Write the structure tokens for this entry.
Amino acid sequence: MLLGFLGRRAIPGVETWDGTTFSRNLRLPHADGRASITAHDDHCRVELQLSDLRDLAPAVSRLRRMLDLDADPVAVADTLRATLPVDRIPGLRSPAAFDPAETAIRAVLGQQVSVAAACTAAGRLAVGDPTSPAPAQIAQMDSAVFAMPRRRAATVIELAAARLADGTWRTDMPYCEYPSPVGILTLVASDAGLQGVWWPDDARSTEVGKFSPTIRSLLRQLPKLDEYFAGRRTTFDVPLDPSGTDFQRSAWDVLRTIPYAQTMTYAQQAAQLGDPAKARAVGAANGRNPISIIVPCHRVVGASGALTGFAGGLDAKQWLLQFELDTASTSGHHTTSVS
């Protein structure tokens, strides 16, 4: 049972398991919280304790990921088959975790030790931060604190430091909230360019640092979103600094070639990458696009033209497509689909 799996790996001071209910503290955008999950015969009951109701959507999104509720088994198998002998180990999954940084650090802590020893080590790192072993904290630690082989401790410290240096992993990224017609968007930027335009329930929204009103005008000016939503901008020429794999970046580059008010299918996007059979992999890459709207993954549709998965939800996708069509029709832009 998944809760039992999580319970056996509970981090002292962060997570608890009493044989029936798994609970853990949560690091969320506006305040810390706590979730308790209890297994029943045909469902799980989740109770959330939040100090700020604005954290409800991010908390639910991250819990769904931790419990693997939104996984596409076919897409998972296709991705793993490219690198691992999944035919011999069907159903393979990454260990469930609430936070991607926590997943990476716990993977290193668990090498060549028992589950109990790994949990003790993780709990030692979480001292002072009851929500999880935080990269910002770990990167500043002395290796002697780890009580493990020096090389492994150095690896954890270097991993935490790399996490902070990578745009999608930083816990101290300045950000601002942009009130758009499709919801409040979280905008994140580095010195090199825009790193994220995230939806309200995007799990990555919990990875930013303190709200920074001093950069609000900069971030709002950078992507020219005001002009886009006013119907006066159809392209973006802002510097971007997204983080992703080579394949993901290639897929996102294709997205930027889709003209305003036009659409492309996943198969067509994959064909532009040289392999029409990679439509599912392209869909997965689009799902990880960190810069929504500006890198327009909303313009990709299913083979029949039907709307498919979108980080902001299908209602937002429909709104964006219709908005672009309406704007284009009044300004004389061509609006046929991309072939």
